[in-house]
Structures are given as C-alpha cells and as structure tokens.
C-alpha cells in the first residue's frame, strides 16, 4: 500500500524523468507534423514493453514515425517488409554452412533489434506471422538447437492497411491479442498538411538527435509500473472488460449481447492498466485517473472484441460498442 509520502517521492522522480519524454516529443516533432496521438501510442508501447499495431492508410507517416522515434533513442532499428513470399527464416535467421570451418553457424535475422517495424504484417502468410509473434511473446528465438534471448527493450511495431484486402492474410484473433494496442491513424488536418507539404517542398529535414539511451527507457519502465493505481480504478478497468464479456449483466448494456461474440481476454485488463499508468507518466502524474483509462480503452479493446454476424450486418463497429460501454459504466 503506497502512502502519500511514497506517491510524493514517486511524483518527484517522474518529474525528473519526464524531461526525456518531452525531448522525445520535440525530436519526433522535427520530422512528424501532427500525429501526436500516434507518437503517444508508440511511447506507451516503449514505456511498457507492449507491442503496437498501427492501422492506417498509406502515406500517413507510420513507418517514418517509428524510424524517427528509434533515431531519437540510441537503439538498433530494423524494418521488415512483409510480402507473400517471405519465409520464417527471413525474420528470425537460419543456420548457414561454413565450408572453411566445415560446420553450421547461426546467421541472425532482423528480429534481433530493439525496434522491429513489421511493415504490412498482413501481407505475409500465417507461418511467417507466427514466427514474429512467437518472438514477441517469448522474447526469445530458437535457431537450430540454439535459443537466443532478445535484448531489452524489444518492441515490435506492426502496420497494416485497413482497406486493401486482396492478397492479404488477416491476423487471427489469438495473434492480434498479443498486441498491447491497436491504434488507428487518421489524416492530418488542413493546417498540418500544409506544414507537411511546405516541409517536403523545402527538402530540408532537421537531423534527429539521440536524446535517450536504452538505460533511460528501462529505468522509465520500472517507474511506470510504480505509478499509483487506486482500487476503485482497478475495479473500473474490470467493469469495462467484463462488460465486453457479459454485457447482459448490466441493464444498460443488455442489447450488446447480440452484437458481441467474444470479449476481451485477461490481457485486456493487464494492458489497460499498464497503458493507463504509462499515460499518467507521460502527462507527468504519479497516479492514474479515470480519464487515463478512457483515453486508452479504445486502443486496448478494439482488436479484442469479436462481432457477431448481426453486428456486421448492421454495420456496428467495435469502436461503437466500446463507446457504449464507456458511456454506461459508472466512472469512479
């Protein structure tokens, strides 16, 4: 049980560490105009060790945002372009025969990095997706008879195009559940796009500086987990997640039982708590408030709710269901 003195000491520590977060926002802002929501979601993943799935149309700076963030941190970054002919060994690595030594040696794949961008992850077949998702879950890779631990921080940022479905292999529910957040990236507004257009016409992009080390990130992760969460906030998270599983038990949500085929798993509760703590940390707070939960609820749950045929026929989206739940569950 944290005392008021503990929370005060934690607040002072967060205030000191938060300077790094502000610098990361400033550095990414040199290249990425707008898209604060996307950058914040990437930082939440970075601060919690959770993997992020970015969904948005081409040209919305998804790849550039990940690359820019990795440049602002002294970290190794690898990008994998997923294609239908990709093999698992193209991701995790393989055994190579060395004629001079007359033995097999391990050649590590691009998954051995701190930041791995899986571009258009739904373009590759299931066995390739599974190879990456196993590394995400186990934080290790087995090549031949050798097992290699992946160095921390290890973060997978995957992108997919929501409208182009021809020649794609959609991620099954059990695999999308491995992603902490599914963030949907939207178009910039007119003022932001004007600034983007002018910046690209000049062709003069500011150089990104390293403003954080891997040790800074690992230290911040420990602090994030120490952020205070009241019991009433914990109960609020459970009320939201259980409403996706058993909506009929809430009088205001009974109509959702015909729209939801399955609800959020226990990973939803865990990830919502972690994401809310990271949100509080980013906003320089040592404690979680209900608004932190509401800010991340859509991203945590949108890929964890299964829709029935009735919902699909009526064009009901998971976002609409989550909004209904958030507007009905009592806020502590």
Strand content: 5-15%
CATH homologous superfamily heading of the largest domain? P-loop containing nucleotide triphosphate hydrolases
How many domains make up the 3D coordinates? Answer: 2
Count of DSSP strands: 11
Number of DSSP helices? 13
Helix content: 40-55%
Arrangement of strands in the largest sheet? 2-5-8-1-9
Low-confidence stretches are: none
Q: Please give the largest β-sheet.
A: 5 strands, parallel
> How would you classify the helix and strand content by structural class?
alpha/beta
Order of helices and strands: HHEHEHEEEHEEEHEHHHEHHEHH
Distance linking N and C termini: 19 Å
What is the CATH C-level name of the largest domain?
Answer: Alpha Beta
The CATH architecture of the largest domain would be 3-Layer(aba) Sandwich
Shape: globular
What is the typical, i.e. mean, pLDDT?
87
Radius of gyration, whole Å: 21 Å
Stated plainly, the CATH topology of the largest domain is called Rossmann fold
Task: List the main descriptive attributes of the protein structure presented here.
47% helix; Helicase, Ruva Protein, domain 3; alpha/beta; Rossmann fold; globular; 332 residues; 15% strand; 2 domains; two-stranded antiparallel sheet; five-stranded parallel β-sheet
Mind sketching the topology for me?
Layout: H1 4-29, H2 36-48, E1 52-55, H3 62-72, E2 77-81, H4 89-92, E3 93-98, E4 103-108, E5 115-119, H5 126-138, E6 140-143, E7 146-149, E8 155-160, H6 173-176, E9 181-184, H7 190-202, H8 214-226, H9 231-245, E10 260-262, H10 266-282, H11 290-301, E11 306-307, H12 309-313, H13 318-328
Parallel strand pairs: 1-8, 1-9, 2-5, 5-8
Antiparallel strand pairs: 3-4, 6-7, 10-11
Helix pairs in contact: 1-8, 2-10, 8-10, 9-10, 10-11, 11-13
